[in-house]
């Protein structure tokens, strides 16, 4: 039999009610409401835990805070288990049955005015030789 677990924060305050007069009774009512709410969703209460958590405190400091948690579990039925098993298997990055890429689209025919024009460089004939480094004209 497989279980899934859930942890929720325990109530931090009691709930006001006509029958709950003392703080202890109010807290017990809040806890009972949480237990009944989770039981209504199929969760079975397992235990309460106090667990540490390191959290930021101020600009550069850290502090250890303790959280009160209620732990629940419920049975995972075989249908959910088989779905979870197939989801847990590593999947290929590109599925083998992927559809082939569509064929390339033909380029649309653009009117002459809308088509891109190539820059035209006028032909001025041979280029003159570059001057020598010392500034003198080339010999010739």
UniProtKB/TrEMBL annotation:
* Region entry Disordered, spans: 1-21, 80-140
Q: Which stretches are tagged as biased composition: Pro residues?
A: 100-109
Q: Compositional bias of type Basic and acidic residues: which residue ranges?
A: 131-140
Q: What is this protein called?
A: DUF4177 domain-containing protein
What organism, scientifically named, is this protein from?
Answer: Paracoccus stylophorae
């Amino acid at each position: 039999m497989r279980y899934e677990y859930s942890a929720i924060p325990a109530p931090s305050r009691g709930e006001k009610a006509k029958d709950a007069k003392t703080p202890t009774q109010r807290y017990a009512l809040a806890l009972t409401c949480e237990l009944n709410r989770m039981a209504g969703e199929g969760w079975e209460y397992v235990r309460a835990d106090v667990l540490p958590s390191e959290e930021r405190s101020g600009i550069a400091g850290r502090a250890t805070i303790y959280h009160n948690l209620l732990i629940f579990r419920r049975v995972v039925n075989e249908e959910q288990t088989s779905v979870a098993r197939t989801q847990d298997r590593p999947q290929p990055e590109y599925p083998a049955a992927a559809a082939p890429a569509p064929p390339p689209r033909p380029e649309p025919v653009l009117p002459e005015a809308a088509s891109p024009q190539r820059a035209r460089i006028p032909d001025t004939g041979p280029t003159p030789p570059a001057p020598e480094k010392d500034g003198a004209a080339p010999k010739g």
